[in-house]
## 1
Amino acid sequence: MAQSPPTLRRLLASAAAVIALTAGVSAIAAPLDVEKDQLKLGFIKLTDMAPLAIAAEKGFFEDEGLSVTLEPQANWKVLLDRVISGELDGAHMLAGQPLGATIGFGTKAHIVTAFSMDLNGNGITLSNDVWQKMKVNVPKGADGKPVHPIKADALKPVIAQYKAEGKPFNMGMVFPVSTHNYELRYWLASGGINPGFYSPTDVSGQIGADALLSVTPPPQMPATLEAGTIYGYSVGEPWNQQAVIKGIGVPVITDTEIWKNNPEKVFGVTDDWAAKNPKTHLAVVKALIRAAQWLDENNNANRAEAVKILAKPEYVGADAKVIANSMTGTFEYEKGDKRDVPDFNVFFRYNATYPFYSDAVWYLTQMRRWGQIAEAKPDAWYDETARKVYKPDVYLQAAKLLVEEGKSKEADFPWKSDGYKPVDNGFIDGIAYDGRKPNDYLAKQPIGLKGDQKVEGGQVVGG
């Protein structure tokens, strides 16, 4: 969606500044002198692209002297390839994409992020048939409803039954380096189900797997489940709630129940683009911070309006009722079992937009755990890689400008952070995560590569 011409915007800002000075009040800050004022940014049709849509619709890009076109992409691979080729200036990305590309898993390219787009926002949905078989293993509360969080232990005997009948237990996730892949794997492994390994010669991710995970684009998840090609999937909204509305599946767990307040998407650009366009980069981050603030301010008071915007065909294009199910602080599991999940979508609170190194390190541990990083790495490597990709210095520069302009509050930003969160105990399996000690964290995982282990010839070898 194109914005009004930046030259006109600058003239208006200058005029406003003169008027403000004449009136004896503080001048309105002029936009940065950006290197590039016409931008094309990519996204996938998911509700967590919201900061981009809001920055466009509310004029936040325009305030920064930017004319931005937002363009939906066919899938995550196409999106990444187009950012690398320069066809897109930047994009809404899976948090694992800049890291995977930078270390050379899949397409090799140095991608950076200075803005984390949201926390949470995903779920795991199972077919009605699988849910009925699994449900008998799930404890019930006094109200007769399943007790949440529902653990994968309840799914394990169902998978064993399918295996005994000679049926592979197929599940979908959106991309090999997606949060969805790692969350689904984490949940399965916490219940004693092996989701399989990758190796340099077999990138299926299904080596030794009890459940076979494969890529399905997000909008196609419900149809693929309905067709019986997969028995469940891990995806962002609105595609879990779509399964409920269509009556074809049951979301059994949200990602905030797997890892409380986990980082989800990021805004990514190439390192070369960031180096050539530092002021433009700052301007984009400023606009996105303001959009995130708007989405969460006054206890999510703007979410109903955000739902209407996201429902437009040029953005998510799903029914507003489906988008509202999660965006307005509720989540429907089994049909009729709607529960309050106020933090299902978080865009600004809890320092959601700050690019923490410890978040980057967690993604790298999961790449190592499942063999996408084939060889053991020292703790220092994880830190160095995180710093190559995550750019909190750029984020804080943008935040500082917004505070000076009176558009943000100083108290809302982690100015003194070293980029690492405290030890995190918010995981479903109770295993604590310390981003400064990634190898210790890996060693605690009952399923997954650790130490010097690697996958060779379809087997885990080493110790």
## 2
Amino acid sequence: MIRHIVLVKFQPDVTDAQISAIFSELHDIKAKLPGVLSITAGRSESPEQIERGYMHGFVVDFTDWDTLQAYQDHPDHKVLGGKLVANAIGGIDGILVFDLPIDQAAE
């Protein structure tokens, strides 16, 4: 399994409703791509408060690297990615992406 982790520093004028709409579009992709196991998105509620401005994020679990690639190539993902970049502080510089292979047998 591949865990795709994305953290976003949204611009201060981006509303909660706009962020919810973006995350809703993300959830819609799950129904369109076999191999997307789960999607979780939201705002950080960490008691540690060391997000360094990355107050929103999401995690998508894929069955394998091929499924992650299909997600990245999907036209809906490209549109969604454009919205994330347009609404992040500094564009792409306001987004972190981390892909973590998970050995489910070891969990």
## 3
Amino acid sequence: MNIETITEQALKLEPALRAYVAEILLESLDYEEDFVVSDAWRQEITSKAQ
């Protein structure tokens, strides 16, 4: 699978799932700053992913 296909498929996801994927990708990068996600937002993302 190439990056164009992955991007195309990801953009078809509903917004909460796109945010979840974006969060996971950002967390996988080696940044010195943490990307803080509130508990409420994490619950929203999790509920949409199921």
## 4
Amino acid sequence: MYTGTAVFDVLLPGDSRSLKAKRSYVRPIVAALRRFEVSAAEVGDVDLHGRARIAVALVASEAHHVGEVLDACERLVAGRPEVELLSVRRRLHGEDD
């Protein structure tokens, strides 16, 4: 059994000056990530208007599958034209950890 996580640090557009505007950018990204059958949520910078941290987590029987899914999630976030992906922090935990 392997678990994988990724945390995406995202810069939001300048017009996200309120939490309501911020949610209008973050919610569609989280919904799109969940199509990969991962757990996804906004996990940090909740009170900052121009930044967001979005995390995904998954469990799989093979490390290769975890890597493929996290790669797909990263491509999705990086490909969103309305936000800028600043950094990604990934972790993989196996049975030996």
